[in-house]
Structure formats: structure tokens, C-alpha cells
Write a structure and sequence with these properties.
This protein is α+β, with helices and mostly antiparallel strands. It is built from ten helices and 29 strands. Helix 2 packs across helix 3. Strand 4 and strand 5 form a beta hairpin. The longest helix has 14 residues. A twelve-stranded mixed β-sheet has the order 7-8-9-10-11-1-2-3-4-5-6-12, with helices on one face. Strands 13-15-16-17-21-20-19-18 form an eight-stranded antiparallel β-sheet, covered by helices on one side. The chain is globular and about 80 Å long.
């Protein structure tokens, strides 16, 4: 296995880090790799609880996240961000298996949800020890013992995806990993993820590991009095509401509905959605063109997919915002009054700034003057008018980068998407992940072609950003088409379906 030089150099330096808190023991010289795999998997199954400080470092050596993780079988988890990273410093995400609490220290809010599968949550993406156990069990031909390191009492195991059987359990489609496993606790203390063809390594380090220390259940229930900035607001996360018109939005939000009162001639408000955390998305539509508007009550982090392009700081609505000039569309983002706003469309900077400066609270009088499209009954769409993507359930979990419970957010380079998802031989109108086992649970993502195009204005990327209720889960690939043939003019399968037939 050829590990990029940058990883080797980083690993040599990182080798001097001392991990404390776990009962380390010298590694045995006579253990085979399958025996190491067996002991690791067995040890993971025997863990009742553990805690550790976890640090994730990017390819440049910059720390991306530093968190404290506590877990307790079967589904209790607690993640606290110790430094600013993918979340603000002090962000706390806690679950007892039936409730998830998401505490945001900047707006001093707590979001609560009970709508989730405890086996597939935000915490799943942080379960690197569990990912390694899956590599050992699901891909028995993928690993080899690289050696032992007595200075930190670890076994060093290399993983590389077998030909024709890509890994689906690692994040961001990584196909290689080097793992240092502590010989005493059988916990990973360092994991390096990389791809040989495009080396962009990510390093995950575990420190201050405590195993089976008896973490009390109370740790996994959010206590508003036990955080530096007690929350001023608690929001119960309801399922996402689809809005079919501006009238729907006004009926639900009333005077809390704030939208641009000015917009280019010919555009009218269409539908959108309202998320449980209060994030509103609406579209202004003119023929086949649209302007996207998002109002999100998240301080310091504008919501929405960032348009690729040069960024300019400009005055917006009494504050400083960011204007991005993209290839096919532009974007304006700004934060004011505890809300983060985004406008995305083909309009130039002057026009978007004018829209931003026209925000108004909607009332009955204004509703009579604003142009908005009435929802129309439509003929059912045919299969050729739909974008249908089938993926393993495990792939969706590993590639979902959303930090919001109930929302799935995936972004892939278009070349990678085309390589991983191919048109089925018997069902050419479906894009199917190229490697699905016969009895593997799969997920169908199916939306109108027009909606998919609006979601993907940048041809270099494929983006999926939808509520998890949009995704339908099936026990296997055959079950998908047994269901689909009831609704669309496609042949019903007479036997087991594979990607090639």
C-alpha cells in the first residue's frame, strides 16, 4: 500500500503524542491480523461506555474539530465542541436514544427532536471506532497488519478497498485507512483516512480515553442550567413543512414571515419549506428561472449552499454582507437581528442588494398586493420526468453532512457521482449505486427533474438537500422496483434485481 509522503511525515511527528486514560499494554508479537480483527470487534461489542477527546485534522495540518465525546450503550451519546470548527465553540449535542437536544451557544437556543432512528443519527458520523469494526467484519479481505509500535503500545492496521468492492462505511468516499489500535483498551487512538488517487488525508486522534468507567445516565440528558450561556429559547423540531404557496407560509407564520418586498418584474412567489428550527426557504419564479430566498435564525452561519466564485464584502441592509459572483448565478448573504439571510439568482449585485434592503413583515394588506402563484393540480409525472437515485442506506448515512436533525445534505463532484451511480440495465431511468449487495438495505431519492435542476445550478457538483422524509427505505433493490412498478410504467421484476438486470 502506497501511503502519500505527507501522511508518513505527519504520522512520524504525531507518534510522539502520549495518549492517557486507557489501560495500555504492550502489543503481542504473535497475534495474526484476523486475530487482531476478532479481538477488536469483540472489544467494541463489550464496551458499555467510553469517553475521549477527539481531534480531526485536515490535509493542511489544521485542526478542523476538537470535541469531547461520551457514549453509552446502546444509543446514548454526547458531543461537546471544545473549539470553533464545524460548529461554534460550546455547541452541545446530546441524546438518550429517544430525544436529541442540540444546544447552540450563540443564539442561546435548544432544538429538540424525537423524529429519528437511533441507529442512524448525527452521532453515527462521529462513530469512527464503529466504522473500523464494520471494515473488519464487512470487508475481511481489505486489511493487513503493518506492524506494532511499542512506544505507544499499538497495532498498526492498513485498510484498502478490494477491487470492485468499494468501502461504503467511511466518510467522504475514502477508500484507504491506517489505524493505530491500543493493545490494552482495543480502542483506535489514531485513524488516517486517504485515497491513493487523490491524497487528501484526514487524521482522527483519540486522547484521554476512558472505557467502561460507569458514565451516569444523567450525562445524556440536556441540563439547561449546566451550560455557560443558559438557553433563552427551546424549539421543538417538528417534521419539515412543505409550503405550496406564499399563502401557506403566511397562514403558518403570520407576522413572523419576513420577505423581500421588492423583486424583479415578472417574478412571483412560489412554494418552499419551513424547517423545525425556523428556517424558511421560498422561491420567486419567472418561467423557468427562479430566485431562492432563505431566512434562518442561526447567528453567525448563513444557511444555504455556497455559490462558487469570488467573494466581496459589501454594505447590505445596514450591515456588512458577502456577495459571490458565480458562473451561472450570484449569491448575497448577510446576518442581521439574529437571522442569517441568503438570496441566490441570476441577478447582479445591485439588484440583489435592492431586494435585501426591502425586507418587510407580511400582513393582510401586503398579501393582497404581492404576486404569488396559486398551487395547481397537475397530472402525475411519468418516470422519465423524475430524477430517481438509489443508494445503500449505509452510503447515505456516511455521506450526509447535515448538522440539522431530519435533514439530509449531500454534495459530490459530478464526476464522482457519475462514476458511482450508473443507469440500471433493466431500469435505465434510475441511477443506481454501482455496488449494492443482494440483501442490502437501500434508499430511493425521487424528485421531479425540474426540482433537481433547481437544486443543482452548478454543473460541477451534484447536491441533495432535502428532509429525510423524502427518502424511502427498502429492504433490498428488488423491493424498490416491486413498489415502483405499481405507480409507473416500468416492468415488475420476476426475480432478484441487480444493477445489471
Amino acid at each position: 500500500m502506497n501511503i502519500p509522503v505527507g501522511i508518513v511525515a505527519f504520522v512520524v511527528l504525531a507518534g510522539f503524542i502520549l495518549w492517557t486514560g486507557c489501560m495500555s499494554a504492550p502489543p503481542a508479537d504473535n497475534l495474526t491480523t484476523p486475530e487482531i480483527a476478532g479481538q477488536y470487534v469483540q472489544a467494541q461489542e463489550n464496551i458499555q461506555d467510553f469517553s475521549a477527546t477527539v481531534e480531526i485534522t485536515g490535509a493542511t495540518g489544521q485542526v478542523m474539530d476538537r470535541v469531547q465525546i461520551q457514549k453509552k450503550a446502546p444509543y446514548d451519546s454526547r458531543i461537546e465542541f471544545l473549539t470553533p470548527g464545524s460548529e461554534a465553540n460550546g455547541t452541545l449535542v446530546v441524546t438518550n436514544g429517544t430525544v436529541i437536544w442540540w444546544y447552540s451557544p450563540l443564539p442561546k437556543t435548544v432544538r429538540i427532536t424525537r423524529h429519528f432512528d437511533p441507529k442512524a443519527t448525527y452521532f453515527t458520523g462521529w462513530d469512527y471506532p464503529g466504522m473500523i469494526a464494520l471494515l473488519f467484519t464487512k470487508y475481511p479481505g481489505s486489511y493487513m497488519l503493518n506492524g506494532t509500535e511499542r512506544r505507544n503500545n499499538t497495532y498498526v492496521v492498513d485498510f484498502s478497498a478490494p477491487a470492485g468492492e468499494p468501502f461504503t462505511v467511511l466518510p467522504d468516499n475514502y477508500q484507504n485507512a491506517r489505524v493505530w489500535i491500543d493493545a490494552g483498551s482495543w480502542m483506535p487512538v489514531r485513524i488516517v483516512l486517504y485515497n491513493e488517487t487523490w491524497p487528501s488525508p484526514v487524521t482522527v486522534e483519540y486522547r484521554d480515553i476512558r472505557v467502561n468507567s460507569g458514565i451516569p445516565d444523567s450525562v445524556f440528558v440536556f441540563d439547561p442550567d449546566n451550560v455557560p450561556n443558559p438557553p433563552k429559547e427551546i424549539r421543538h423540531h417538528d417534521p419539515v413543512l412543505f409550503l405550496f404557496s406564499l399563502e401557506d407560509a403566511y397562514h403558518i407564520m403570520g407576522s413572523d414571515l419576513v420577505i423581500p418586498g421588492y423583486f424583479p418584474a415578472g417574478y412571483a412567489y412560489g412554494g418552499g419549506y419551513l424547517m423545525g428550527d425556523g428556517t424558511l426557504q421560498l422561491s420567486l419564479v419567472k418561467d423557468d428561472d427562479s430566485i431562492g430566498y432563505i431566512d434562518s435564525p442561526v447567528v453567525g452561519r448563513p444557511y444555504g449552499e455556497i455559490v462558487d466564485g469570488p467573494v466581496t464584502e459589501i454594505p447590505v441592509n445596514g450591515t456588512i454582507g458577502e456577495f459571490r459572483q458565480g458562473k451561472n448565478q450570484n449569491q448575497l448573504q448577510w446576518i442581521k437581528g439574529g437571522h442569517a439571510y441568503t438570496l441566490t439568482g441570476r441577478q447582479d449585485q445591485k439588484e440583489l442588494v435592492k431586494m435585501a434592503g426591502s425586507l418587510v413583515e407580511v400582513n393582510d394588506t401586503l398579501m393582497k398586493t404581492l404576486p404569488w402563484n396559486e398551487p395547481k393540480m397537475a397530472e402525475p409525472l411519468g418516470i422519465t420526468e423524475l430524477t430517481s437515485i438509489i443508494m445503500p442506506k449505509s452510503w447515505l448515512i456516511n455521506h450526509n453532512t447535515s448538522a440539522t436533525p431530519g435533514i439530509v445534505e449531500i454534495r459530490l463532484p459530478e464526476q464522482e457521482f457519475s462514476r458511482e451511480f450508473v443507469n440500471g440495465t433493466a431500469y435505465p431511468d434510475y441511477r443506481i449505486y454501482r455496488s449494492i449487495a443482494a440483501h442490502e438495505r437501500v434508499v430511493l431519492y425521487q424528485i421531479p427533474n425540474t426540482m433537481f435542476r433547481l437544486d443543482n445550478p452548478d454543473p460541477a457538483y451534484v447536491r441533495i438537500d432535502r428532509p429525510d422524509s423524502v427518502f424511502r427505505t427498502y429492504p433490498n433493490l428488488t423491493a424498490v422496483f416491486l413498489d415502483q412498478c405499481k405507480h409507473y410504467k416500468i416492468p415488475c421484476p420476476t426475480g432478484s434485481v441487480t444493477i445489471h438486470g
